[in-house]
């Protein structure tokens, strides 16, 4: 009898424990599935996307996020959207998810090797049956062509596809014209005039506060590299990021002319006209310093970098502190290009796990991305809701700045997250956008930037040879850059360092492969 009672008690205890475990598990599973949002348990397909977002941007609550609501309604899905600023933390997060065998269904591949290692690790899905002119008509009609896509393949595998990109260049240097005016100097047209402006900005008290607290140029070295913003690269014929000349590839970071470039940079630093924290500045900290009036020259690379119409531009932000501020674009080398024509940049990739277990998820994501690449998705993710944030007559779009400010900018400027798939290039879609915020000054700035020459592009995307670690070569290259700047304080040893890169870190193999790819693309034009 004693044992029978004990057995009954044990059985009841086990059943209670099992019920408790089930309840906890069920609750935990529900939270995991819904991420705390209602409606995720309604049977809709769950999609996980991992993308990059602009600094300072934030998503609003789901009920106020009209983009999320439109996508979820149109495609009958539930979205789990994760976003982070580009950089090492972004790459580390993706690497962690892959290591845990819990990758997102789709993510933007932002690593320096463009996904080469992930392709070799077999974590990327074959996109052959997902990304085609039939499944993505908008993507191929407006933004991409099949030849460009073929040349974007890694190791003859179709495991990545380029994000639509703006084929125009907006690379320009920007200078405080109000400081120039006060000091009686023109906008520089030569490198010599540029250096004169740096001296005047540093020693001429351009802000009139009577303190020696301003410098000429600033950049961000992130504590680990030589920023490619330095004008001294262009001074020595090294254009961003690379170009093809006389049958050879000129890579601005490994060319022999880096020796003289480093010498010139050290010379200008030695004259005391450069932000002393340039090497330690991280991300956009150098721009924050420029906004604060600590430096008068920076590099910009977007069309709206200094526009009055952009509430986040360096111009708008600086004028909040100094109403007289006037940032204008310039080229310190006259009619010399500052860069080669853009080529496809970073790709979007699909999870091999999803392709094997849930291919229908990738088909659904493909449809969403193509919708984003079309007129309807582009307008929603760049400008907002029709008849609320803009009106449209035919192909002419008239923005409503007050509603955009109230509903979008003040709500975390969340369209700077949702516009991840397409550049701000409405003309590609045949649209003409009228922004009442665009001032006469803005129009002059846009014309100035558009007038800066651009060198002929490479004509193809540079993908690394199979099994070669380009990141290791670039990491060693940056180590040498830092050594020359900080320890050697000279560029004299660059030929020696470069030889090590070419012979011990596969530089010769890498660049020979790149050149063969460029020649093949040019032969097939």
Task: For this entry, give a set of tags.
single chain; 525 residues; alpha/beta; five-stranded mixed beta sheet; four-stranded mixed beta sheet; 21 helices; 43% helix; globular
Describe the protein:
This protein has 525 residues and is of the alpha/beta class. It has helices spanning 2-34, 66-75, 88-99, 116-120, 137-143, 146-151, 177-183, 191-203, 232-235, 258-270, 285-291, 314-321, 352-357, 359-373, 375-382, 401-407, 415-418, 440-451, 470-488, 494-504, 507-523, and strands spanning 45-52, 77-84, 106-108, 161-162, 172-176, 215-217, 242-245, 248-251, 295-300, 327-330, 347-350, 390-393, 396-399, 432-434. The strands form 4 sheets. A 5-stranded mixed sheet has the order 2-1-3-11-4. It has a 4-stranded mixed sheet with strand order 6-9-5-10. Strands 12-13-14 form a 3-stranded mixed sheet, with no helix packed on it. α2 (66-75) links the parallel β1 and β2 (77-84). α5 runs parallel beside α14 (359-373), α14 (359-373) crosses α15 and α19 packs antiparallel against α20. The protein is globular and about 65 Å long. Residues 1-39 have low confidence and may be disordered.
What amount of the residues lies in strands? 5-15%
pLDDT below 50 for ≥5 consecutive residues: which ranges? 1-39
| Net shape | globular
Q: How many strand units?
A: 14
Number of helices in the DSSP assignment = 21
Radius of gyration, in angstroms, nearest whole number: 27 Å
Within the largest sheet, what's the order of strands?
A: 2-1-3-11-4
Give the end-to-end Cα distance, rounded to a whole number of Å.
Answer: 92 Å
Task: Please state the structural category.
Answer: alpha/beta
Mean pLDDT: 91
Q: Residue share in helices? A: 40-55%
Q: Major sheet: size, sense and barrel closure?
A: 5 strands, mixed
Query: What is the subunit organization of this protein?
Result: single chain
């Amino acid at each position: 009898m004693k044992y029978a009672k004990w057995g009954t008690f044990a059985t009841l205890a086990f059943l209670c424990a099992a019920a408790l475990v089930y309840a906890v598990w069920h609750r935990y599973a529900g939270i995991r599935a819904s991420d705390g949002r209602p409606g995720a348990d309604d049977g809709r397909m769950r999609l996980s996307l991992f993308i990059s977002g602009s600094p300072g941007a934030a998503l609003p609550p789901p009920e106020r996020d009209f983009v999320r609501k439109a996508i979820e309604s149109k495609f009958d899905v539930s979205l789990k959207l994760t976003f982070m600023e580009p950089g090492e933390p972004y790459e580390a997060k993706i690497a962690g998810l892959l290591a845990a065998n819990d990758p997102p269904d789709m993510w933007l591949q932002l690593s320096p090797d463009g996904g080469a290692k992930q392709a070799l690790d077999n974590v990327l899905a074959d996109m052959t049956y997902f990304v085609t002119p039939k499944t993505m008509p908008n993507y191929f009609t407006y933004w991409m062509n099949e030849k460009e896509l073929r040349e974007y393949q890694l190791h003859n595998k179709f495991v990545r596809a380029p994000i639509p990109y703006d084929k125009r260049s907006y690379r320009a240097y920007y200078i405080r014209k109000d400081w120039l005016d006060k000091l009686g100097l023109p906008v520089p047209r030569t490198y010599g005039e540029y250096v004169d402006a740096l001296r005047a900005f540093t020693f001429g008290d351009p802000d009139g506060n009577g303190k020696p607290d301003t410098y000429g140029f600033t950049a961000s070295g992130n504590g680990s590299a030589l920023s490619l913003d330095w004008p001294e690269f262009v001074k020595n014929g090294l254009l961003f990021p690379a170009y093809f000349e006389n049958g050879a590839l000129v890579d601005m970071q490994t060319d022999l002319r880096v020796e003289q470039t480093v010498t010139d940079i050290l010379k200008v630093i030695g004259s005391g006209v450069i932000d002393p924290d340039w090497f330690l500045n991280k991300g956009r900290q150098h721009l924050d310093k420029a906004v604060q009036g600590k430096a008068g020259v920076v590099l910009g690379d977007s069309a709206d970098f200094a526009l009055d119409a952009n509430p986040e531009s360096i111009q708008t932000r600086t004028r909040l502190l100094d109403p007289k501020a006037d940032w204008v674009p310039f080229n310190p080398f006259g009619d010399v290009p500052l860069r080669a024509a853009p080529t496809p940049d970073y790709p979007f990739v699909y999870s091999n796990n999803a392709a094997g277990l849930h291919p229908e998820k990738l088909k659904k994501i493909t449809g969403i991305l193509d919708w984003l690449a079309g007129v309807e998705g582009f307008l929603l993710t760049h400008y907002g809701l029709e008849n609320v944030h803009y009106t449209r007559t035919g192909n002419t779009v008239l923005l409503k700045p007050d509603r955009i400010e109230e509903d979008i900018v003040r709500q975390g400027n969340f369209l700077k997250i949702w516009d991840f798939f397409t550049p701000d290039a409405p003309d590609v879609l045949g649209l003409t956008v009228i922004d009442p915020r665009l001032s006469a000054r803005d129009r002059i700035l846009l014309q100035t930037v558009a007038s800066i020459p651009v060198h002929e592009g490479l004509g193809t995307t540079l993908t690394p040879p199979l099994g070669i670690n380009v990141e290791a070569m670039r990491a060693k290259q940056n180590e040498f850059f830092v050594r020359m700047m900080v320890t050697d304080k000279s560029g004299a040893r660059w030929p020696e360092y470069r030889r090590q890169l070419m012979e011990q870190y596969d530089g010769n193999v890498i660049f020979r492969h790149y050149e063969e790819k460029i020649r093949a693309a040019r032969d097939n034009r």
